[in-house]
Amino acid sequence: MEENKILTPEELEAKKKMESIFKSVAESKPEVHEPVHETAQDEARHEEEQESTRNEIELMTVKRLSDSQKEAIEQKREERKKRKNKLFMKKCILSALIVLAVISCGYFYADYAPINVSEEVVITVPEGAGTRTVANLLKKNGVINSEKFYKVISKLRGIDGKYNYGSFKVKRGSGYEKIFEILTGAGERLDTVTVTIPEGYEIYKIADLLEDKGLIDKDKFYYLIDYGEFDYDFIEDIPTRDNRLEGYLFPNTYNFAPNDEWGIINSMLSEFDMVYGKYEERTEEMGMTMDEAITLASIVEREALGDEDRALVSSVFHNRIKSPDYPYLQSCATVQYVLKERKAVLSIADTKIDSPYNTYINKGLPIGPIASPGEEAIHAALYPEESDYLFFVMGSDGKHHFSNNFNEHIQNKN
Description:
Blueprint: H1 9-27, H2 40-61, H3 67-112, E1 120-125, H4 131-140, H5 147-156, E2 166-171, H6 176-186, E3 189-190, E4 193-196, H7 203-212, H8 218-227, E5 253-256, H9 261-276, H10 280-285, H11 290-303, H12 310-322, H13 332-339, H14 348-351, H15 375-382, E6 391-394, E7 400-403, H16 406-413
Antiparallel strand pairs: 1-2, 2-3, 4-5, 6-7
Helix pairs in contact: 1-2, 4-5, 11-12, 11-15, 12-15
């Protein structure tokens, strides 16, 4: 026999109400005398009353859920929701992977296949260079998009170890197979000219030198300086101005092919990118931008005599920038840049020329570099010697003499 179930107070109350309703219904039942013919309206009302009674009984007998039961139901609901969300996320990820795969295939195919063959560039491959070096050169010259993919295909095609050295003309977008053909010796090899770009040269002097060597067309060279596209992140940090790349054509000895203005500029920018990378963190520590650091380095390069005084010259300009009494750098080299002439002695009129590069009339640094600094000048600009000097002047002994006050400076001049 089944055990009696213990009812909750709510259930007991519902049971009592139900029994009361049944009793009420029984007592209200009419006595049977003679058959009474109910009208259709009476029958409908009677059925409506019975339906209402049944609904009320049903409502009274519904068992209330406990908190634990509610929690279990809610938990199941959440689990169902999570399963749906996971399924949705899997679909999204799968769709994204499919789209990515399609894009990647298109990207690599466009790199491998000859598509949109355009401007011709000169690639100079050093003797003994491997696939890694070649891929890097091709990427920097805008010939390929992916170094890694190129290295993979070069290995699969058996090209590794077969690259020739020298300078080669390659068209951007010509495709891997054409590149392999050219760089393994079937293409046109070019004779190169060795040229040294000295530290402290301005762009106009670099252009004169390259033209004298028969390497460039000046108009094309200057156009590329201001508007050429080069794939280096640091270029985005250079403010818009005339002679945009002034200070960034790194001084060094190069082997250039004739009539390759873009390649010549790109080679010097590549060298700058490699050298300056070592000083990015220090530039931030000094609270300077890259352009400010290279601007100061270019002034140090033009003003200092050499290794013996670069750091001291740098300290004078750093002190001037911070000085409330002497905020003008008064660098003769900045006026010479405006004049495009390296005058030994500036006139009063020269120092009053209206130019954002003239540090006699503008406080602090000029708006940009005035020459191409070498690595030693960049180092000196970012690691100045500790001093309180505010002046320096060339003495009769051919050396710079430094002082921290104007009177001593006048004495040094005499």
